[in-house]
Write a structure and sequence with these properties.
- The chain has two domains: 242 residues, no CATH class; 152 residues, abc type-2 transporter like fold (3-Layer(aba) Sandwich), CATH 3.40.1710.
- It is 66% helix and 5% strand.
- It contains 17 helices and four strands.
- Helix 3 links the parallel strand 1 and strand 2.
- Helix 10 packs parallel to helix 13 and helix 16 packs antiparallel against helix 17.
- The longest helix has 32 residues.
Length: 430
C-alpha cells in the first residue's frame, strides 16, 4: 500500500507540472461544451425566437396572392419583407444579400387566375361525381386541373438542409391553405349561388386535429429535453477520453527516459505504476465530469442557456461516470504502451478519439447514420457511454436500465487491459 501511495503522489506531481495536459483536459472541454450548447440551443430556438427573413416579390394583383402572403406570415417562422413587384431573379438575389435574408419568393403574375381555374375544375369534378351539374361550373368542369403557376423559392446555400426542408414543408402548407380556401368558396357558391360566410369558412379551415408531442421516458416524466441535456453528457465523454493526450504521453515519456528500466531494479512491480496511473487519471476523469456537470447545472442559466437537469438516480450517474472514466484511462494507457514516441501517441490519440466520437454518435446521432456506421457504432466505447448517459439524462432511467450499456464497456475495458499486459510483456517491462 505504501508503494502504491507513493506512486500515486508521484503521478499527481507529474500531472500538476503538465500545464498543457491540464488545459486540454479541463479548459478546452469546458469551452467546447459552452460553445456547442450555445450554438445548438440557438438552432432549437430558431422557430420560437428568431425568425428567418423572407423577401416576397408579388407580381400578382389578385386576392389569392395576398392570402398566401398572410398565410406565410401566420406560420410564425418567417419575417416577411415585401420587395418591389417588378424585380427579376438577379435583383431579388441582390436584395437577399443586402438584407441578409436567407429566403426569397417570387409569386407569378397569373397566380390568382390560375388558382381560380384550378379550383373551379376541382369543384366541377366533385359536383359531377355526385350528379350535381351546376351551370356556373359547367364551362370549367371538363377542364383538366392546371397548376397555379410555379412558386419559386430562393434560398441561401448556407441554409442547412434540415431547415430548408422545414421551410419547404411550411410553404407547401401555406399554399395548400390558400388552395383549399378557394376550392371551398367555389363549391359553396356553386351550390348556394351566394358567397360563403366568413365565419363558416374560418371554421372549416381552422378545424384541425391538435397534434401533441409528448416525450416518452422510463421515469414517466414529461420534461422536454433541451440542448443542454443533449450536449453536456456527450462532450463530457469526449473530454474524459481526451486524457489520452496527457496519460498516453506520460507512459511514452517514462519508456523513453528509462523510468521503466529503473523501476525493474527496484523491489516493486511495474504493475503498481500502471495501477497508480489508472487510479490517478480516473480521479481526473471523475473531476472533469463533476466540473462540466456543475457548469451546466449552475452556470448555464447565467448565460441564457437551459440548466442541466441531473438524473434522479445519482448512484447510476456515478456508476456510468466511473465506468466511462475507467474505459478512457484503459484506452489511453493501451495506446501509450504501444506507441514509441510522444508524437505517435498525440497524433494517433487525437485522431482516434475524434473518429470514435464521430461513429459513436457524439457528433451525428446514430439513427441518422447508414447501416454500416450504425453497426460500427457498437465498436466505439463512446457509443455505449453516450447511450448510458442519455438513458439517465433524457429518459429518466435507473441503474437497471443502463446495465446493458455498461456490460459492453466492461468487456472493452477487459480487452484493453489484456492488450496492455500483452504489450508490456512483449517489451519485457513486466
Amino acid at each position: 500500500m505504501y508503494k502504491l501511495r507513493a506512486t500515486i503522489l508521484k503521478d499527481i506531481r507529474i500531472l500538476w507540472k503538465d500545464k498543457v495536459g491540464l488545459t486540454l483536459m479541463f479548459i478546452m472541454p469546458v469551452l467546447l461544451v459552452i460553445v456547442v450548447t450555445n450554438i445548438q440551443n440557438s438552432t432549437f430556438q430558431l422557430v420560437n425566437r428568431n425568425k428567418l427573413s423572407i423577401l416576397i416579390c408579388n407580381r400578382d394583383t389578385g386576392q389569392a396572392s395576398e392570402q398566401l402572403i398572410m398565410s406565410i406570415d401566420k406560420i410564425g417562422m418567417f419575417k416577411v419583407i415585401r420587395v418591389a413587384p417588378g424585380q427579376n431573379e438577379k435583383q431579388l438575389s441582390d436584395a437577399m444579400h443586402a438584407d441578409d435574408a436567407m429566403l426569397g419568393v417570387i409569386i407569378p403574375e397569373n397566380f390568382s387566375s390560375r388558382l381560380a381555374v384550378k379550383s373551379k375544375s376541382i369543384a366541377g369534378k366533385a359536383l359531377n361525381s355526385f350528379g350535381l351539374a351546376v351551370d356556373s361550373i359547367g364551362a370549367t368542369a371538363a377542364v383538366t386541373s392546371t397548376s397555379t403557376g410555379d412558386l419559386s423559392i430562393y434560398y441561401n446555400p448556407g441554409l442547412h438542409e434540415s431547415l430548408r426542408l422545414s421551410v419547404e414543408g411550411a410553404m407547401r402548407s401555406a399554399l395548400q391553405m390558400v388552395e383549399s380556401r378557394e376550392i371551398l368558396r367555389t363549391l359553396y357558391f356553386s351550390i348556394s349561388e351566394k358567397p360563403m360566410p366568413g365565419n363558416m369558412e374560418n371554421e372549416m379551415l381552422s378545424n384541425q386535429t391538435t397534434v401533441n408531442m409528448i416525450p416518452v421516458s422510463k421515469g414517466g416524466t414529461r420534461i422536454t429535453p433541451n440542448a443542454t441535456q443533449h450536449n453536456v453528457p456527450a462532450w463530457t465523454i469526449f473530454a474524459m477520453f481526451f486524457v489520452i493526450m496527457s496519460l498516453g504521453a506520460s507512459v511514452v515519456k517514462e519508456k523513453v527516459n528509462g523510468s521503466f528500466t529503473r523501476l525493474k531494479t527496484l523491489p516493486t512491480s511495474y504493475l503498481v505504476a500502471m495501477i497508480s496511473k489508472q487510479i490517478t487519471y480516473m480521479g481526473i476523469t471523475i473531476l472533469q465530469a463533476a466540473v462540466i456537470f456543475s457548469i451546466g447545472r449552475w452556470l448555464f442559466p447565467f448565460m441564457n442557456l437551459p440548466a442541466l437537469n441531473l438524473p434522479s438516480d445519482m448512484l447510476a450517474l456515478v456508476v456510468v461516470t466511473f465506468v466511462t472514466g475507467w474505459c478512457a484511462v484503459s484506452y489511453a494507457i493501451c495506446v501509450g504502451v504501444f506507441s514509441k514516441t510522444q508524437e505517435q501517441v498525440n497524433g494517433f490519440g487525437a485522431i482516434s478519439i475524434v473518429i470514435l466520437a464521430a461513429i459513436g454518435g457524439l457528433m451525428v446521432p446514430t439513427f441518422a447514420m447508414q447501416d454500416f456506421f450504425m453497426n460500427a457504432a457498437n465498436f466505439s466505447p463512446m457509443h455505449w457511454c453516450l447511450e448510458a448517459y442519455y438513458k439517465l439524462f433524457l429518459e429518466g432511467g435507473k441503474l437497471n436500465d443502463i446495465l446493458k450499456n455498461i456490460a459492453p464497456l466492461f468487456i472493452m475495458i477487459i480487452v484493453l487491459q489484456l492488450l496492455t499486459m500483452l504489450g508490456l510483456k512483449r517489451k519485457n517491462l513486466i
